[in-house]
Amino acid sequence: MGIKIVSRQLSGEYEKVLRREQRSFMTGNEVVAWAALAAGADLMYGYPITPQNEIMHYWARLTPHFGRGFLQTEDEMSAGFAMPGGALVGKKTFSATAGPGNILMQEPIAMAEMMRIPGVWIIQQRGGPSTATVIYSQQELRLTATGGNGEGLRIVYSTASHQELFEYTIKAFNSAWRYRFPTFVLGDGYQAKMREAVTLFRPENRGWELVPAEPILCLPGVPARDRDPVHLRNTFNLEEELYTRLMDQLAVYERIAPEVTEWEAEVPPEPEVLLVAHGIVARAARQAKESLNRQGWKVGYFRPVTVRPFPGQALRQIAAASPNLRLLVVESAYGQLLAMVKAELYGLTNPVDSLLKPGVGITAEEIAAAVDQTEEGEAVS
Amino acid sequence: MTEGQKPVLQETPGNTKLPLSWRKETKPHRFCPGCGHGIALKALGEVVDELGILDRVLYGCDIGCSLLSWDFFNFDNIQTHHGRTIPVIVGAKRARPELIGIAYMGDGGGYAIGAQHLVNAAQRGEKITAILANNTLYAMTGGQMAPTTLPGQKTGTTPYGREEAKTGLPMLGPELVAAIAPEGSYVARATVGEYQQLKKYLQKALLNQMTGGGFSFVEVLSTCPTNWRTNAKQTWAFLQGEMPRYYKVGEFRTADAPPGEEEG
Amino acid sequence: MRRVLEAYVGEYASGKSENAINRGLRLVRAGRRVRLVDLDLVEPAYTLRPLKRKLEAQGLQVLAWETKELIGPGEAAIPLKKEIVSALAFPGDVIIDVGYGVEGRRLLNLIEGGFAQANGEEALRLIMVVNTTRPVTSSLPLILAYLDEFGAVDGLINNTHLGEETTVELIQEGAVLVTAAARRVGCPVLATTALRPYARQLGSVDRMGNPVWPIERFMSGAFW
């Protein structure tokens, strides 16, 4: 079959899919592959693991029409280390993984974090620990935000819809290449597989600037003649050298954190309860809030969009403004978000309750019922 | 072979000129006295000079003593994690095929912790050049057993000598790679004891990448007097006498000869 | 009585399962003995398994994994149930929901007698479900390329929708595209399928004269 002829004819058709801005009915993984295309990603290095596989399937299927590259490596470590290889010589590289794959990815992510090499990782969380299940879970929050043997100098966007998966994947490429910290889109198996309508678009057509990828190594010219050779090292001679370097990086991270941090908050006057959730669970929390509001409850809603850096100041202001406001933290994990929330509220006396269902989905009805049942909460200790 | 039969280094007498691609500001280098890395890297530098590819080389080094070469050359370098130099160089080469990717590592990085990367890069025919120094042990971490440790050899983790029944026989890397690499691959084992041959093999390995042949792999038998606890004569005797009993020096795959027809 | 043997194929998330279930139930309501077969090699645990009991209560026999039979659901561990291989031996109508992971006519290799049946008197018909809001089948050239890669099918179904954002006009536009594609490859459009409220507005035929089959949504009771 004349597949090459067909392919050439199709590249224009696929380009139209991005440009015409019509609503499309899609799965989350598919959305991510299109988003990476729209973001100008050059190469995906990946290794199969459920529930992210269709990101690779669609990327591998679409990239020949867009002149991009794909390599299926021997494992996640190989994929993770090939990413900085490509990024160092000036290409936008990304990968997608989950669960045990996310654990293996922590090694290359730690190197990218130390050496400030840009890269985008899509994490479609699955149930854990170990290989466990593949759909509902928010148990990779801590691993994604602060995994690795370092300080968690990362940017993590937790998405709640297909439109967000598309837009935050594009944004993740921009943040990664602008700030040079490892950047993540934290989805989950449910978002990966569920279907809903989304509008794909060419970011340039909406005035979104795409941050270009600049080479760090192998710039033009003969080294030592036209320019100095670039020698990158992440092994340090003494503690002082590491300390100086790391403190510089922490200062950069803390400086950029305010402009990176994103959240959603809807707080009624004199709020009684504040639902706190991230990712797909935040969607259920928002539904619960709306239905409770209709029943007369003064319920608010707070959702960190960046779970790292965490919008702690915004949350703290809301809590501090209403000392009797009771927080209800909801997550498909056993206290990973809860720990972040409590750390940010340290010293305040707002009661904090939780609905924790590790590795299980949570519905709006369950959240509404939890608000109804828990009238008295425990104080932050 | 008895000691002293061969000249110490088979290089041009009086050749003290540094290769252009050596970074003079970082010399003298940081390797221990008598270490084989300096010889392997000198040969690599000369070959890069002769091929005129200084502006195209991307050099990656591993963890272990190979990392001490991070600023050794005038070409750009990325120092990676233990065993992960091959995937980093693969990632760069796939992104910019015009570059000459060199992954430099020790026997622990290539044959133990990163063995999956060596095996799969070879099997896929990645167009990079991997150079692996075999000094029969882990040196930087204090002299532990490596996959290449000889039977009976004492190391930090084989204090009574390596026992075949417990930990197997020395890993034969080039033989393994030669068996799985596709056509167009170049596979050889050189030794720092045969300098001109070492240079020839490194040159062929780089030329094979430049002409788009395929995966190129050179294991270099190297010396570690510090962890071998040997003086100069004993070091030489181990390199030239003991190691060749297990490790056959020669070409295992070349562009001219199909698999299995190379001579040692 | 001639048996109905149909396999529902098409792009990932195009509505194959929904159409296969509805087709099966329509045949049951016509008094026929029907078996619905789940042939999904990637997500065997997440398509028909959660619906099995509900469908069986309505008289449809379902050949799909039971939770208790599964180790490692969601992973492609033991994805092809051995009974599925001999699915056509069932003495009644057989509707195969060909899930994700089985592309092209090669899927018939997995079903005993699949090819023989396809050529024989009792033909196993391949029916491709198309939703033109799916990006890879969203234009005439893309649908034709998809069909070209898949190989011949016996009929197309226009299942264009956008979930909760579906409109009658959108379904009609899908019908135009799917009909144009069918004419180009020389196969019929069997129907436009739509949820009942839309089907009622569409009438008995769509803009291109294809019959409209109302369907009910079952997959919301599954995982997605």
Topology, please?
The complex is a heterotrimer of chains A (381), B (264) and C (224).
Chain A: H1 3-19, E1 23-27, H2 28-38, E2 43-46, H3 53-66, E3 69-72, H4 76-88, E4 93-97, H5 99-115, E5 120-125, H6 141-146, E6 155-158, H7 162-179, E7 183-188, H8 189-193, E8 195-199, E9 231-232, H9 239-260, E10 263-266, E11 273-276, H10 279-294, E12 299-304, E13 306-308, H11 312-321, E14 326-331, H12 336-344, E15 351-356, H13 364-373, E16 378-379
Parallel strand pairs in A: 2-3, 2-4, 4-5, 5-7, 6-7, 11-12, 11-14, 14-15
Antiparallel strand pairs in A: 1-8, 6-13, 10-12, 15-16
Chain B: H1 37-51, E1 57-61, E2 76-79, H2 85-95, E3 100-106, H3 107-113, H4 115-124, E4 129-134, E5 137-138, E6 144-145, H5 164-167, H6 173-180, E7 186-191, H7 195-210, E8 216-221, H8 225-228, H9 232-242, E9 250-253
Helix pairs in contact in B: 1-7, 3-4
Chain C: E1 5-9, H1 16-29, E2 34-39, H2 52-57, E3 61-63, H3 82-85, E4 93-98, H4 114-119, E5 124-130, H5 140-150, E6 155-158, H6 168-185, E7 189-195, H7 196-202, E8 212-215
Helix pairs in contact in C: 5-6
Defining traits:
heterotrimer; A: 381 residues; alpha/beta; Rossmann fold; 2 domains; seven-stranded mixed sheet; six-stranded mixed sheet; 16 strands; globular; disordered C terminus; B: 264 residues; two-stranded antiparallel sheet; 9 helices; disordered N terminus
Can you give a write-up of this model?
The complex is a heterotrimer of chains A (381), B (264) and C (224). Chain A is of the alpha/beta class and 381 residues long. Chain A has two domains: 16-202, Rossmann fold (3-Layer(aba) Sandwich), CATH 3.40.50.970; 264-379, Rossmann fold (3-Layer(aba) Sandwich), CATH 3.40.50.920. In chain A, 44% of the residues lie in helices and 19% in strands. Chain A has 13 helices and 16 strands. In chain A, strand 11 (273-276), helix 10 and strand 12 (299-304) form a beta-alpha-beta unit. In chain A, helix 2 (28-38) runs parallel beside helix 3 (53-66) and helix 4 packs parallel to helix 5 (99-115). The radius of gyration of chain A is 22 Å and the shape is globular. Chain B starts with 36 loop residues before the first helix and ends in an 11-residue tail after the last strand. Chain B has a single domain (32-253), classed as Thiamin diphosphate (ThDP)-binding fold, Pyr/PP domains (Rossmann fold), CATH 3.40.50. In chain B, the strands form two sheets. Chain B has a seven-stranded mixed beta sheet, with helices on both faces. Chain B has a two-stranded antiparallel ribbon with strand order 5-6. Helices cover 33% and strands 16% of the residues of chain B. The model of chain B is unreliable at 1-13 (pLDDT under 50). Chain B has helices at residues 37-51, 85-95, 107-113, 115-124, 164-167, 173-180, 195-210, 225-228, 232-242; strands at residues 57-61, 76-79, 100-106, 129-134, 137-138, 144-145, 186-191, 216-221, 250-253. Chain B is of the alpha/beta class. With 224 residues, chain C is of the alpha/beta class. Chain C has a single domain (5-221), classed as P-loop containing nucleotide triphosphate hydrolases (Rossmann fold, 3-Layer(aba) Sandwich). Chain C is built from seven helices and eight strands, in the order E-H-E-H-E-H-E-H-E-H-E-H-E-H-E. Chain C has an eight-stranded parallel beta sheet, with helices on both faces. In chain C, helix 5 (140-150) packs across helix 6 (168-185). The longest helix of chain C is centred in the last third of the chain and has 18 residues, at 168-185. The radius of gyration of chain C is 17 Å and the shape is globular.
